[in-house]
Amino acid sequence: MLSYALKRILISVPVIFGILLVTFSLSRLIPGDPCKAMLGEKATEATCQAFNHAQGYDQPIPLQFAFYVGKILQGDFGTSVRFSRPVTQIIIERLPLTAELALLALIVATITGVGLGILAARRHNSSVDIGTMILANTGISMPVFWLGLMLAYVFGVWARGTPFWLPPSGRLSAGVVSVPFYQAWGWQLSGGWAQVATFFSNFYIFNALVTGNWPVFWDALRHMILPVLTLSTIPMSVIARMTRSSLLDVLGRDYVRTARAKGVPDSRLVRRHALGNALLPVITILGLQMGALLGGAVLTETVFGLSGVGRMLVDAIFSRDFPVVQAFTVLIAVIYVVINLIVDLSYSYLDPRIRPQ
Amino acid sequence: MSSPLLQVSDLDIAFTSPEGPLRAVQGFSLDLARAETVCIVGESGCGKSITSLAMMGLLPKAGRVTGGSVRFDGTDLLGLSPRTLSGLRGNRISMIFQDPSSALNPVHTVGRQIAEVFMLHQGLARRAAEAAAVEVLAAVGIPDPKRRMKAWPHELSGGMAQRVMIAMALACRPEVLIADEPTTALDVTIQAQILDLMRDLQKETGTAILLITHDLGVVAEMADRVAVMYAGQVVETAEVGALFRSPRHPYTRALMRSVPVIGRRTAQLEVIEGRVPPLERRPPGCLFHPRCSAYREVRDPRCTTEAPPLSSTAGSSCRCWLVDPEDLRGPEDLRGKETTA
Amino acid sequence: MTKMKTAVAAAEANITAETLMGPAVPMWKRTWQRLLRKRSGQVGLFIIGFMVVIALAAPILAPYDPDQVLIGVEHVKRREAPCIHLLGCEASKPQHIMGTDENVRDVYSRILYGARISLMIGIVTVSVSLIFGVLIGAVAGFFGGWTDTILMRFMDVILGFPSLLLAIAIVAVLGPGIQNALLAVSIVSLPAYARVTRASVLSVKTLDFVAASQLLGASRWRILFRRVLPNALTPIVVLATLGIATSILDAAGLSFLGLGAQPPMAEWGTMLGSAKDQIFSAPHLVFFPGIAIMLTVLGFNLLGDGLRDALDTRLN
Predict the structure, then answer these.
(1) Which end of chain C has fewer CB within 10 Å, C or N?
(2) What are the E-state strand segments in B84-124?
(3) What biological-process GO terms show up in the record (chain B) (predicted)?
(4) Which of B107, B109, B119, B155 best probes binding to A when mutated, by most A CB atoms within 10 angstroms?
(5) In this structure, what DSSP letter does residue A155 have?
(6) What pTM does this model have?
(7) Nearest residue on chain A to B117, judged by CA atoms?
(8) C-alpha separations of A263 from A121, A253, A271, B75 in Å
């Protein structure tokens, strides 16, 4: 197991290296002078020279790359041109929102997707099955951002004044303040620990949960409902289709017949003998779905006015804040690779046929 | 034999297809007494496996029993609720299958799959069920059963996997064991071991075995009585000795001539020309006549127009226009041929 | 996009010598008949046919020029709600069945013309990624060794990014615009074709008939194009059809963010993007372009599913 895990981790290293190389090259492919591109056309020769020297742009390219990788390994993602702040600081502020959104969406997508898939497979060719598949096919074909806007309209405008009204934008209602857990508990933190604590306290739902601050918890949760619903639609549809076809396949296998022949009742059959096998291929696509979630987060955050890394990334493109674009691209890609690594490892742990002894 | 343990009468099985229902098995009847072994023999595609699955209520979705009954110890299995039926399956009637490596659940350990039978039918707790499972594993001749309990199906050889299947099937000492081509997927030496094991366990438990096979060698070794199937129908039944001594139906005779016999040199092994006709293209009259050598010689018009009935005499039956029901041997013209062969 | 990735993985696993031993060119006629028998194939073909007709006949069907600003031409206001005479809209007001947009243009005409752009986007991006993807995969699989390692590692890196994110990053560098967006979407969907092609090339390479061709003195490139590639065609046809769907969706996403097609182009994603802040006051500006995108994407997804069943390539 350990050697397999090690091997699998080693395989991801070149991919991550490649990701760094690609993002680095992209930033050097920007047409024209990087200084002019970032500081604007009005930048003077002197400021540009100072800027190029500060950023290391006057060094040979391979050295620049080594410099770049070395800094990232130390957790230094450079400085935002627009905000004049370390990008790492911005990540600590913005990433928790995106992570919270993507994680909740993944949970919702997995639970409803698997549930719908099982329902459809158990009633194969019934109206339930056909209805579920129409829903899933529509879900896969839907532009995420359009669904978000329509949901915002339906729940934010139509449902105004009813209990079904949901906030169509933002993370918290005006006047509601999330108190970081370390402040609530009166911790005195400094340096790296303060950064880590701030990072986790920016998961508002999690933070409100551990501090037992229920008004904030419910408010944050209510604000998350529409974005999560929007973001989870595509993965849910993919997972539902996959679960259905996989379960149908498994239900026709010899070992399911064996289980019936030894007297396993139908109710237990799916749960104990078919589901385990059927969900294995579903696990393999969860990692890929995370890609859809991270890409979709950019669109969802734009629709719902949430300032996570996705929204920041788009803003940074328009304000030509390339250190931020570069850092966020690397960050999201590495998160994606790591998630797929985890999925692969757990798959190999769950399937006895490929589990190394 | 007053009342047989398992009595199948006039079983009809149909498959739904885009072109309408297809009759896969027609008027299948068979009796099985306690501690007896009956073989169903025939080429692939003749409906043997489908018949055995139908008896257990395990037909695939497209298949349906359209008539007849399967009486087990007095009750018709086809009329039972799914719940009652699953109480019987694996408990009083068991089944093992052709390909043991795909018949075991790949994500459960061997021990867990056997123990489940005890938990389902004898209400044992996990611990007790696992202890019982170790015992049956030992009984089917698996070395080091305690360690094997934790093995995964993919770690077992075909022979070992089939032993596990047998252990699972015989765990509750069932009255009937239906074995669908249990040795087909195995090496020849392993085949013999598995058959020996089945016979030994039968002696011990008194289980009646319904053995489905296409291998006449297996029939000779195991059967008390034999039913020969062709294209969804029983064409001949007989006590095993009688069948091998004097096969009556032209199909049975053709089957026998297609198998080499140790110790006897035959000029040439015969091949039955053609194949079992597919479901949607069953010929009129006797289903076997397009391939029948007896028909080719006699050209009896009934063979192509009317389906022959299964006419029985003491302990045996045959479905052929050309066989005299009173004559225990086959048609005249074929008898001469055999001596010259 | 992720749907395609899953499909690729399954296709790679499924390409065995056995599936490739069949006739070099699948029986297209039988495939067509099977496709027409499947519900997904029927619906998919119908939707795509409908969209193609709209795209071709847009000048005839559209009541207005899609870019014409109607201020001073008619008595309409900006972002006016749909007015359909049949449904009781006053006859004195000019009919705009999908309303007007922020520049007082007829939304219905813009939607019709948008079909041209979306279909063009789908076909162009898939063609570009198909040509380069197949070429890369074929070269990697056929020549093996270092060529293979370098090319496929590079494909792995592209697959290492969430596809929309990489497309965004590429556009960020090249600058917003429809051409750059198309290029970006083409690049991110390239590895799918490369991997499937490589997998089939690898399995065909070992087959006897390829060895026989070599013995007969056929050149490597000739073997590649005449014998090997036709065998990889089946999964690629399915992938390409699903690929059109994801490309249209990804390109619309880029346009929505303002990174793809730029106003005043009548592109559905762009129309959505410029209307997103008016969702509460003028929901019709959001509703119709979204439906149009969804319908087109659904058409290609269903056709892809139907083709997969008809061609019997198990891609999931």
Answers:
(1) C
(2) 93-96
(3) peptide transport; transmembrane transport
(4) B107
(5) I
(6) 0.87
(7) A262
(8) 21, 16, 14, 17
CA C292 to CA C77: how far, in whole Å?
24
Distance CA B217, CA B199 (A): 15
Condensed to tens digits (0 to 9), the pLDDT of residues A65-115 reads 888 889 888 888 888 888 889 999 999 999 999 999 999 999 999 999 999
**What's the fold here for domain B6-223?**
Rossmann fold (3.40.50)
Other Cβ atoms closer than 10 A to C157: 22
- Cα–Cα separations (whole angstroms), residue A37 to A251, A328, C167, C183: 59, 18, 20, 21
Helix or strand run (H / E) with residue B9: strand B6-15
> ∠A90-A96-A98 over CA atoms, to 5°?
95
Alpha-carbon distance A178 to nearest alpha carbon in chain C (angstroms): 27
CA distance B78 to chain A (A): 15
- Rounded to whole angstroms, the Cα distance separating B249 from B241 reads 15
Structure tokens at B53: 């699955």
- What is the β-pairing status of strands B316-318 and B225-230? unpaired
- DSSP class of C227: I
Which domains can be identified in chain C, with CATH numbers?
A: 31-315 (1.10.3720.10)
Cβ–Cβ < 8 Å for B72, B64: no
Length of chain C: 316
Residue A241 backbone dihedrals phi, psi, to 5 degrees:
-60, -45
Tokens 């093995």 locate to B151
CA atoms of C309 and A291, how far apart (whole Å): 26
* Three-state secondary structure readout of B24-39: EEEEEEEEECCCCEEE
Retrieve residue A164's tokens.
Answer: 């079904």
Is B106 in contact with A352 (Cβ distance < 8 A)? Answer: yes
Tell whether A249 is within 8 A of chain B (Cβ): no
Name the phi and psi angles at B180, rounded to 5: -95, 100
The answer for residues whose C-beta is within 8 angstroms of residue C53's C-beta and 6 or more apart is none
Sign, Cα dihedral of B196, B199, B200, B201: positive
- Tell if the CB–CB gap between C302 and A337 is shorter than 8 Å: no
Distance separating alpha carbons of residues A193 and A180, to the nearest angstrom: 14
Neighbours of C, requiring at least 3 CB pairs below 8 Å, are A
Q: Measured between CB atoms, does B58 come within 8 Å of chain A?
A: yes
pLDDT single digits (tens) B104-129: 999 999 999 999 999 999 999 999 99
Structure-block tokens of residue B285 = 């009259």
ipTM of the complex: 0.88
- Tell me the nearest-neighbour CA distance from A42 into chain C, angstroms: 19
Amino acid of residue C193: Y
Domain ranges of chain B: 6-223, 229-340
